[in-house]
Amino acid sequence: MGFLASGNGFYFVFLVLFFITFSSPQVASASSEEVGALLKWKASLENTSRLTLWSLPNNANNSSTPCTWYGVSCNADGSVIGLNLTSSGVTGTLYGLSFSSFPNLAAIDYSMNNFSGTIPPQIGYISKLTYLDLSTNQFSGIIPPEIGLLTNLETLHLVDNHLNGSIPKEIGQLRSLSELALYTNHLEGPIPASLGSLSNLARLYLYNNMLSGPIPPEMGNLVNLVEVYMNMNLLSGPIPSTLGNLDNLTVLHMFVNNLFGPIPQEIGKLKSLESLSLFSNKLSGSIPASLGNLSSLSLLHLYNNSLSGPIPKELGNLKSLTDLELSENQLNGSVPASLGNLSNLELLFLRDNQLSGPIPEELEYLTLLTVLAMDTNQFYGHLPERICQGGKLQNFTVNNNRLTGPIPKSLRNCSSLKRLRVEGNQLTGNISDNLGIYPNLYFVSLNDNNFYGELSENWSRCKRLTTLHIARNNISGSIPPEFGNSTQLQELDFSSNHIVGEIPKEFGNLNHLLKLVLSNNQLSGSIPQELGSLAELTYLDLSANRFSGSIPTTLGNSLPLFQLNLSWNNISEEIPVQICNLVHLTLLDLSHNELRGEIPSAINKLQSLERLNLSRNELSGGIPKTFEAMSLSSIDISCNELQGPIPNSVAFMNASIETLQGNKYLCGNITGLKPCKNPSAVNKHDPKKSHKLVLMISLPLLGSILLLCAFIALFISYERKKRKPEVEQRDVQVEDVFSISAFDGRAMYDEIVKATNDFDATYCIGKGGFGNVYKAKLQSLGIVAVKKLHSLSEMADRKGFIDEVRALTEIRHRNIVKLHGFCSHTRHSFLIFEYLERGSLATILSRDEAAMELDWPKRVNVIKGVAHALSYMHHDCSQPIVHRDISSNNVLLDSEYEAYVSDFGTAKLLKLDSSNWSAVAGTYGYVAPVNKLSPMFLTI
């Protein structure tokens, strides 16, 4: 810190000159008491190789001079005045040193050794001591109050020890003290107000302790202070305005404390101040315009506080400023154009505020700028055209704003760039042309924009590139095989684009790749075996593509993998047993494929596995009992051809029936599954006798059933001739229909009626044209939303209703509200939906507080969620689906503001001429244009 370069350096030079002057052999001899005290102390020390001269000749007595000994300095009379053992490797304590034996001792430097124990109170006996440095040792205990007796002391350094307790108020008696350095200890308690009496103090270093309480206003009396470091403590309260009296102050560092209140205007009076660092406190209010008077200031750190209001334009007067950091506050308004006057500025951090407006073009004049971080604000408009005209910009971070337009030309040619983050904006342009070749670039994130075009092989020429994210754009074309030359790549994310073709085999050359995400594209072909050579790969997501063939057995070689997602593809054949070698896997998702065969019994080797999804495949056979040795938290094996008992493990016992349904022959003690038969009961009888017995009973019974069926058929035929068509229709309507996932429909009907108190108004959470929505808490499904239809007596086609709703229950998409099923009863008919906590988008937007919480990044995410849902309904369903009524009323949000499309499935269920059908299918202004297309679209 500062004292190393100034105060301590002065004393070091002083001591060297002092020792040179007085260390030559003296005519007079030191007192026998001084010699004896040194020899006695040496005897108590260890690692004294540097002290070999500390001894007496055989013919000498204690009156011999020690002035030629290592680290010992004497005055003209031969009396010891300095002891300097810095960096001597000595181990021991100060207990054996008789301080009272050195009446003329003026300087002690025992720094950077292995001294331990406490600082003896007897050190206060050295009345002439002016310099004391015990830094970088293992001293513990308190600072003795007796240190206040050293009234001639000018320098006190006790840094980097294990001292505890409080700073003794007696230090305030050291009126000659110019340097006080106590940093990096375990000191606690308040800063004593008595320090305000140290009128000669120039440097105060108290940082990296556990000091608490307020900063004493008396500190404003120390008019000779040049440097103050109180950072990294637990100080609280306001910054005293009296600090504005410290005209000579050049450094004021109080960061990482609990200081609160405003920054005093008086700080602007410190004309000599060069460095002001107050970050990571709880300061509030606005940034004082008076800070613009600090003409010598080169560093201003105010980040991570609760400062509000605009950035004062007066900061543009700080022509010496090289580092300006105002991030992580609540600053608002636009960035003043006057910041373009800071011609020496190298670092500008304004990230994570509420700043808005365009980024000023004047920032182009900051030609020395190396870092520009303005992310997580509300900036809009285009990026400054010549932002890199100085050619020194290394870090350009503007992600999570509302910026539009292309990447400026100066950034395309900015060869100094090392880090580029523009994700979460609305930037456009052809990505093939927008960016160039960057020899120093290592991190790029272009996610969540509107870039189009094809991936350029230029990326492979950025030899230092480690991270490349271009997810959720409109990128098309194939992946150039030249990417295999980017051997430093660690993360690659091209997910949610329109990329086609195959994964280049050259990816197998990316030896340092940790994360590969290519999900939600149109990639096809086989998954390359070469991916198995990625020995450092930890995360692989190839889901939602068109991959076919088998799972490469070589993936079992990627031992560090902890997440593997190959879901929503056309992968076939068996699950390779080699996958079970991935012992660090926590997630394995192979769902929605065409996998066949049995689940490998060696799956129990995946001891770290927490989530397993094998649903929607063609897996057969039994479920391995080896599951019982695993610590899975969730599992989904639905919609396969599995059979036999469910393993006795926590994941299966806690599984919902949804995750097990669609397997005809599964059994177990879970609601919705048949109990398993006891195999021992079958073997109690002789097989041949049992077979004969079955024939004797079944044949006569079969004949009787056939006769009965014939009689019933004749009777029904006769009765039908007597009925009218209207009666037939009414009979169909009277029939009760239940279909709720794989649950017992009738039991579920009763549970819902009970949970809503027979659809009492207190449970109603919404009303619509087709019915009211109720909130119900069910034992089996948890909290659900139940839409009770006003009437099904006007249903145009009851069978069509049943078939259509059953089809809708098969829809699974992360942005579509899940329809669990339906109940049609003579008393009530209703649909059962997934419950979303935050309700509809319309409701949120109608409330000011909730609307403010839904900031622009969240709103963009809502729009993307709705777009994903519509894309799925239009393009990924076997029969395309048109919603017909997308509005804010029909978009629901969960607790994380993820969007879900709802209210599909009812528009087509009721007759056109019924009382609750309008002439237009949907809300005016929101009706889908494709609503009038051909009947190949299922409109819902």
UniProtKB/TrEMBL annotation:
Signal peptide bounds: 1-30
Keywords, sorted A to Z: ATP-binding, Cell membrane, Glycoprotein, Kinase, Leucine-rich repeat, Membrane, Nucleotide-binding, Phosphoprotein, Receptor, Repeat, Serine/threonine-protein kinase, Signal, Transferase, Transmembrane, Transmembrane helix
A GO biological process held by the record: response to other organism
Top-level lineage group: Eukaryota
Membrane-protein topology: Single-pass type I membrane protein
EC number(s) reported in the record: 2.7.11.1
Main localization (coarse): membrane
One Gene Ontology term of the molecular function aspect: protein serine/threonine kinase activity
Gene3D superfamilies: Phosphorylase Kinase, domain 1 (3.30.200.20), Ribonuclease Inhibitor (3.80.10.10), Transferase(Phosphotransferase) domain 1 (1.10.510.10)
InterPro entries from the UniProt entry: Kinase-like_dom_sf, Leu-rich_rpt, Leu-rich_rpt_typical-subtyp, LRR_dom_sf, LRR_N_plant-typ, LRR_R13L4/SHOC2-like, Plant_RL_S/T_kinase, Prot_kinase_dom
Residue ranges annotated for the Protein kinase domain, each copy included: 759-940
Catalysis: reaction(s): L-seryl-[protein] + ATP = O-phospho-L-seryl-[protein] + ADP + H(+); L-threonyl-[protein] + ATP = O-phospho-L-threonyl-[protein] + ADP + H(+)
Subcellular location: Cell membrane
This protein's GO CC annotations: plasma membrane
Keyword Nucleotide-binding attached: yes
SUPFAM superfamilies, per database record: L domain-like, Protein kinase-like (PK-like), RNI-like
Amino-acid positions noted as binding ATP in the UniProt annotation, renumbered to this chain: K788
Spans traversing the lipid bilayer: 693-716
Protein name stated in the entry: non-specific serine/threonine protein kinase
